[in-house]
Amino acid sequence: MQRPSARAKVLSVSPVKHDHEELRAILVGQCRVFDAASFHRARKLLEADVFAIVLCERNLAPYTWRDVLAEVAAVPTRPLLVVTSRLADDYLWSEALNLGAYDVLSKPFVALEVTRTVNAALLHWKYQNEPTTARVRAGHG
Questions:
Q1: I want to staple 31 with a disulfide (CB 3.0 to 4.6 A). Which of 8, 17, 66, 94 is the partner?
Q2: Which CATH number fits domain 9-140: 3.30.70.260, 3.40.50.2300, 3.30.1300.10, 3.30.70.980?
Q3: Is the pTM of this model over 0.85?
Q4: What is the pLDDT of residues 32-52, one digit of tens each?
């Protein structure tokens, strides 16, 4: 069975190096993980390449995940944003989803949760980015 995320690119945005290492270890063989330690580096990577998902730390002082959300909204292929935080409470979850994030993951990362969220997001991203005619054909086939 081919994984939906086999060649997809995921961008991890966090000033915490361990976040990138953990995500890379969890998602090994599923997708390619790129990392950015700052908002500015994330912006440059988003301008230069196509990412399906952006996993973004809640706080990128002086920026936040909301700034990254605004950046991904401007990208033609519109990657899905997943907010990550040690304080992933109901307020953050509600705010993030209401503003357009795809999901919220709590830290420390739980491999099963990360894998489930990333795979679901990849399927959603692929569907939203495939041509309308392919979606219509798939629905009638």
A1: 8
A2: 3.40.50.2300
A3: yes
A4: 999 999 999 999 999 999 999
